[in-house]
Amino acid sequence: MKRKQFELYRSSGTANNITVGVLASIGLICGAKSFTGTQISLVEYCFIPETLTSPDNRAKYCTQDLRYIMPESEFYAEAYAPANPSFQRDNFLPTKATRLRIIPPSNPNKPLWGLASVVTTGGAFALSKAREWRLMQLLPEVRNELKANWLISKLREGLRLHKESYTAQLDYEFHQWTENRRARAAQLSQMTPQELAIFQEQVRLKAEAEARAQLQQATGQPAGALPGQSMQDVARGDDKVTGGQQQALQHNSGESLHPSESLALNTLQALAKADSSTALVAAPGSGKSVTLNYLIEKILADCPSADIWVISAKNDSFCGLREKERVIVFDGENPDLAKDVIDNFYQSYKLRKQLPEQRRESLPPLILILDDWLVIADSLSKLYSDWNYGSKLLDVLLIGREFNTKFIASLQSFNLAALGIEKMDAQTRMCLNLLLLGNKYIKNSREQESYGVLELILNRGDIIPGKQSRELIKSKYLEVKAVSYQNFRPVMIASVGGFVVALMPNLSNQAKSISDAHEYLDRVYELEFNLNAAHPNHTKPLSEVARKIYEYFQNVKNKTPKTLRDLKKADRLSGYSDQELMNGLSELVESEKINYDGNDSYSLPDW
């Protein structure tokens, strides 16, 4: 409604402007007219002596410069009667004036012209102010209406996008359901009648267990033993999640302090899986060693065949790598071991660079961990002045991701030049993932803080570009720091594509929960779905990708050997990377479920 009034207001603008212009012009003309001419009659007079009779003598007393003009009403009034300016006593010049003529008024209507000017000019001004007043009334209402229309359009666009996204999600879930149904049908078609009977019985028992659990939750009554189970089986419970496992699977919910812990855990997992190098920067007491061990555990859990070497200033286990003789403790008196490790690591990397593209995809991770690298790098630079290890690290940093090669450097200072890479500019820094930690801890019965590294990065425009981005990260950091300060839990600022600020979870519990959860899920699968397993309680459970690959080999109609390229074309395996597929194949070969036929081909054994 207001929009229509505003449009009418705009359309009437030309007519209003013309009217105001015409009235203003008329007012100016009338005003000018009111200032011209005379309004009253005037008398022209002179002073002529009455004793002179000759016309010639009289004329000299009434020349042009001796003539005067005054209003007619004043000429005849005694109070305003004109006096001869040349009059002198004992002189013959007269004191009274002689009227020559009456000059009629040239503009007798001057007041009317003035009134007309005032009326027309006032009308023009009133119309102009009225239009201005109307505009000031309409603008807020039109502005609010425009805002409402804009918001409605945004909501409609958001609803449209949500509808498209929801439709796409439904299509995907339906496709996934169809594929799972087809895979289950194919799996059931391969079963013998005895296996089908066992499977149906297990499904029935599982459905009854779920129904009894829901009944117990709704009524609060204890659930009895399930059909087909004795009380000893129920009490034994070795095929169920224990209380400790359940707490681990729930991420130790009783100790949860901040919702960003899950974000921190996802970020650490992304760093472990990242194909680019990482700098772990933290002051003593910030949880650097625990975080580094968690990254190693995650890497080994995802790929047990990962080739990891460690150079450290302390003789730690590093998740069992020391027992595998993969940890080199740096000794300033005998630094050749550390130098040889870096040279051998770089030599292995150079060999990978010679491989063709099709063989790079199946390479296991090659990782060099540089712990307490600030001290070690300084010693190596002094001992081997002609040995430029920084160029090797720069090569791995920029190109290593193409060959599944990277390094993880643990530093106590934000001075990234300590890596030994001289050309650490802004572009080079973008290739390096950053993980910075800060914490409040107790040492020698005294509370100490180590947030300096985190607060330094918040003011670095070359690290976090954009003042607005730095302010947002700083605001989030202050919020998380308050929780960290009260509970002695580390704060993380990480750069994995974008910057993340979060509270670190309890990584020691997380490592146990990951192991227990995987073991429990594998056990459930073996009990309910993997009916071909001869001894499900005594064999190591397969990982998810290995199970998917094994199902693919079982359900495929063509029993010819398959390559990695064939697996990548399968729908059920489309979501896995080449490295995950290779790890699954290696796991199946080790468990003798498939055979390796050479030339990157695999097949089922002839049973």
From TrEMBL:
Domain of life: Bacteria
InterPro entries in the cross-refs: P-loop_NTPase
Alphabetic keyword roster: ATP-binding, Nucleotide-binding
Keyword DNA damage annotated: no
Organism: Mojavia pulchra JT2-VF2
Gene Ontology MF: a single term: ATP binding
Signal peptide boundaries: none
Name recorded for this polypeptide: ATP-binding protein
Region (Disordered): 214-260
Lineage of the organism: Bacteria, Bacillati, Cyanobacteriota, Cyanophyceae, Nostocales
Keyword ATP-binding: yes
Biased composition (Polar residues): 243-255
